[in-house]
TrEMBL record:
Principal localisation: membrane
Ranges that cross the membrane: 12-31, 97-118, 142-163, 170-193, 199-218, 241-266, 286-303, 323-340, 360-379, 391-412, 424-441
Cell compartment(s), UniProt: Cell membrane
Naturally occurring in which organism (per UniProt): Muricoprocola aceti
Full protein name: MATE family efflux transporter
Length: 450
């Protein structure tokens, strides 16, 4: 008997209530996923010093490039699962899950080999100094070798969310995040492994979350139990999955390339700026996790309602989510402007005033633009949930161009504040194709876009 009480049909009921109830576990889950790299940075900064914090923390943009690709890819696959679930086509839904398994294994293998080979050339392009390069190289090699468990967790949790279950992936992440903390302390503090210990702790913790997620689906979700006929290979189905997965993955990775370019510009200013920028980025990512959760929630909500033909509910859900995003943006602006200085002390001792000042400078430069950042996740994920992949990808390209232009104009020519302006420019630019296209789509679909 199917575990219907865990599944969440989002085609009926109050849109605002459904979105909030789904979003909260999503937010907590994303928060714990952020926890991996944040804990690595905290332990490195407190126990190994500023150079280790600069080494691990500065990999955030590169990690976002790799993990973002996998997350976007699997989220795209899950859109088809959500649409089939909303349309009550469970046989077709299982077939898409099976085809997704083939694609996930293939991408994991190709990326592991390719990124391991290209590891050092990529890092040299990012202007890492010879003092930091060996540590960063070792850290990323271990992360790359663990990509198979990363994509496994992302895919399994995406399938659960497509059925409306955002709580179960959260519980597994909470468990693995706790394990990650323990492993960080044991491997680094007790065994003295250095930055490699952080990487091993991350991969092991992610593997545990993937295994827990798999066995939970086996036990609780008969609707996702795959049969031999589900694995019948279909190029048509593969193309449909890639048609959604690739643009979403590219959108994440294009954005990540922009952050890598900015990180390379920051690296020129030295370890103090690298450490301060890294700490600021980690804190901002935590605040932005609310935006990410709203986006992922809207993707599932829109996917199910699009599958059920309820475009009126799509419009209602987008409108109320926009209000909630604006509300959180105001809170985030206040937090980061006035309290960013104190939160940075999580990563470095209070005596590291230069590093803290760099973090504060970043927050004071970008805080006003958080409403634009939040709106990106809303409109991008709405369009993706409706099955449109190209325009969300174009939003990522607009981001990349804006960041690149700012970096080329200011990096090495002006102060660090000039480099910080790359983020606001990118956030505003991303909305240029997204917002008009959303209203155009809703108008053509016969739904009021007001």
């Amino acid at each position: 008997m199917e575990n219907n009480q865990k599944m969440n049909d989002m085609t009926t009921g109050s849109p605002a209530s459904l979105i909030i109830r789904f979003m909260i576990p999503m937010f907590l889950g994303n928060l714990f996923q952020q926890f991996y790299n944040v804990v690595d940075s905290i332990v490195a900064g407190q126990f190994l010093g500023v150079q280790a914090l600069a080494a691990i923390g500065s990999t955030g943009s590169l990690m976002f490039f790799v993990i973002g690709w996998l997350n976007g890819l699997t989220s795209g696959f899950a859109i088809m699962v959500a649409q089939c679930f909303g349309a009550k086509k469970t046989d077709r839904m299982r077939h898409y899950v099976a085809m997704s398994v083939y694609l996930c294994v293939a991408f994991a293998l190709v990326m592991t080999v390719g990124l391991t080979v290209a590891n050092e050339p990529i890092l040299r392009m990012m202007n890492y100094s010879e003092e930091i390069l060996p540590a960063v190289k070792s850290y990323m090699e271990i992360i790359y070798l663990g990509l198979i468990v990363t994509i496994a967790y992302n895919a399994l949790s995406a399938f659960l969310r497509a059925l409306g279950d955002s709580r179960s992936p959260l519980y597994f992440l909470m468990i693995s995040a706790g394990i990650n903390v323990v492993l960080d302390i044991v491997l680094i503090v007790s065994l003295g492994m250095g930055v490699e210990g952080c990487a091993y702790a991350t991969v092991i913790a992610q593997a545990i979350s993937a295994v827990l997620c798999f066995f939970y689906i086996v036990k609780k979700y008969p609707i996702l139990h795959l049969h031999k006929e589900d694995f019948h290979f279909s190029w048509h189905s593969i193309k449909k999955l890639l048609g959604l997965g690739i643009p979403m993955a590219l959108q994440f990775s294009i954005t990540a390339i922009g952050t890598i370019i900015v990180q390379g510009a920051v690296n020129v200013y030295g370890e103090t700026y690298m450490a301060g920028f890294s700490a600021a980025g980690k804190l901002q990512n935590i605040v932005a996790t609310v935006f990410v959760a709203f986006g992922a929630t809207v993707a599932t909500y829109v996917g199910q309602n699009r599958g059920a033909g309820r475009l009126d509910r799509v419009r209602q859900g987008v409108r109320c989510t926009q209000y909630m995003i604006l509300g959180w943006s105001v809170i985030a602006m206040i937090l980061m402007f006035f309290f960013g200085k104190y939160m940075t002390r999580l990563f470095v001792s209070p005596s590291q005033t230069d590093v803290i000042q760099v973090s504060v400078l970043y927050f004071h430069t970008v805080f006003w633009c958080y409403p634009f950042l939040g709106s990106i996740f809303l409109y991008r994920n709405t369009l993706q949930g409706m099955g449109y992949g190209f325009i969300p990808m174009m939003g990522g390209i607009f981001e990349l161009v804006a960041r690149t232009v700012i970096v080329l104009l200011v990096a090495g020519h002006t102060s660090f504040r000039g480099v910080c302006l790359a983020d606001p420019a990118a956030w505003i630019a991303a909305l240029i194709p997204l917002v008009p296209y959303y209203f155009c789509v809703m108008k053509k679909s016969g739904a009021k876009a007001g």
